[in-house]
Design brief:
Layout: E1 12-16, E2 19-22, E3 25-26, H1 30-42, E4 51-55, H2 63-69, E5 82-87, H3 94-102, E6 105-109, H4 115-121, H5 131-140, H6 143-146, E7 150-151, E8 154-155, H7 163-171, E9 177-178, E10 181-182, H8 190-202, H9 204-207, E11 214-215, E12 220-221, H10 227-232, E13 235-238, E14 244-245, H11 248-251, H12 259-265, E15 268-269, E16 273-274, H13 276-292, E17 301-302, H14 305-318, H15 322-340, E18 355-359
Parallel strand pairs: 4-5, 4-18, 5-6, 6-7, 7-9, 8-10, 9-11, 13-18
Antiparallel strand pairs: 1-2, 2-3, 12-17, 13-14, 15-16
Helix pairs in contact: 1-2, 8-15
């Protein structure tokens, strides 16, 4: 796929033997992924790792990687670590879904709404929409397993007028949860937000339903954001080149084929391990840059610490104006807070969350969006 709002624009260039070439980088082997996870856990207190998120790219292109990571434990605490899989659903047949869910994997399926909404952005490399194929796969999954799937629509400005209709459609598909997020590249104007507010009110009954799936737009609120919160939160991403990066917005960039880019953002690799010192310095740089650019007032209402950090890197890499992007995110977050703050299931920001994201490959036929939703 070639989703139009995805910040992971890399495309597979060629295959060579058993190695899939992603840009100029090799796809992680199971051994490399496990080594990276162990290196990361060694930097944390026992039991501190919350989850392993598999993204990309499309994780279902690497069934061997998924099998190898299922059931990973923290050897020091004995705790099982939650595994979360982000998929576009094109390869999610019933057998695969039942196997993963039965093994404790939390599946987040990218489905934006009805046919017109989904196909606006989620197209394959030929430009053809993917709605029919994804919906067919979802409906073929047995109901008892489908109820454990989270649908993850991405709301874009282009289709915001259909938000209520799309949420109603998604809530009728038998999934256990519908959790909307918002396209990072969109700058939301006041007129856009007026439309969204009306749509949220029209569909407010779905947010409070006790019989259907939980339907909650993702947002968070904090009275203050300081350097400590930025330094303690967020994900660490293990890129396809077996290098640790400070965000999936960095590890998913095709620029990781450039030595200068890797040198700027690398926090270590599976041989040297994750550098706690480099990670701290890099998080402090993020905070300082946000402060310098006047973004701190906009962080009180945002889309989680992971999203703050990933949005920063996405803007930095693409050259997008930081203040403009975060002001837009704050306006959006304010509308969500004011409209949905009484929704059951909303939680305050979890500042100490620890997660590692493993990047999977991209193929000519499938490409998953990673929305940075932690």
């Amino acid at each position: 796929m070639a989703c139009k709002y995805c910040y992971s624009p890399a495309k597979t260039k060629a295959s060579s033997g058993s190695e899939l070439i992603l840009g100029n980088s090799l796809v992680l082997t199971t051994r490399q992924a496990l080594a990276g996870i162990r290196k990361y856990m060694n930097c944390l207190a026992p039991g501190a790792l919350d989850k392993i998120a598999i993204s990309g790219g499309e994780p279902l292109l690497c069934p061997h990687l998924l099998r190898g990571l299922m059931g990973v434990k923290d050897s020091r605490s004995g705790n099982h670590i939650t595994m979360e899989l982000f998929t576009n659903g094109l390869l999610l047949d019933p057998e695969t879904a039942c196997f993963l869910i039965g093994g404790g994997v939390r599946i987040r399926l990218s489905l934006d709404g009805g046919l017109a909404t989904h196909n606006t952005n989620r197209v394959d490399l030929s430009g053809a929409g993917t709605f029919t194929r994804v919906l067919s796969n979802l409906k073929n999954i047995p109901p008892e397993f489908r109820r454990k799937i989270v649908l993850s629509p991405v709301v874009s400005k282009k289709r915001v007028r259909n938000f209520a209709r799309d949420m109603s459609f998604l809530c009728g598909l038998g999934a256990g949860e519908v959790k909307a997020s918002f396209a990072w590249g969109d700058i939301w104007t006041r007129e856009d937000l007026k439309i969204l507010k009306r749509q949220l009110r029209d569909v407010s009954d779905l947010f409070r339903s006790s019989t259907g799936p939980a339907c909650v737009p993702a947002f968070s609120h904090s009275d203050s954001i300081d350097q400590k919160i930025i330094c303690e939160g967020g994900e660490i991403s293990l890129g396809p080149d077996a290098t640790f990066y400070p965000s999936s917005a960095v590890s998913s960039s095709p620029l990781i084929s450039l030595p200068s880019f890797v040198g700027k953002y690398s926090l270590g690799n599976i041989r040297s391990g994750l550098s706690a010192q480099k990670t701290l310095v890099e998080r402090k740089r993020v905070y300082s840059s946000l402060k310098k650019n006047g973004c701190l007032p906009y962080l009180k209402v945002s889309l989680s610490i992971c999203s703050i950090i990933s949005r920063f890197y996405s803007c930095e890499i693409s050259g997008t104006d930081l203040k403009k992007a975060f002001a837009s995110a704050a306006r959006l977050g304010t509308v969500l807070r004011d409209t949905c703050s009484s929704v059951p299931g909303q939680r305050s920001r979890k500042t100490g969350s620890k997660a590692i994201l493993v990047e999977a490959p991209v193929s000519r036929s499938s490409h998953c969006v990673r929305g940075g939703r932690c």
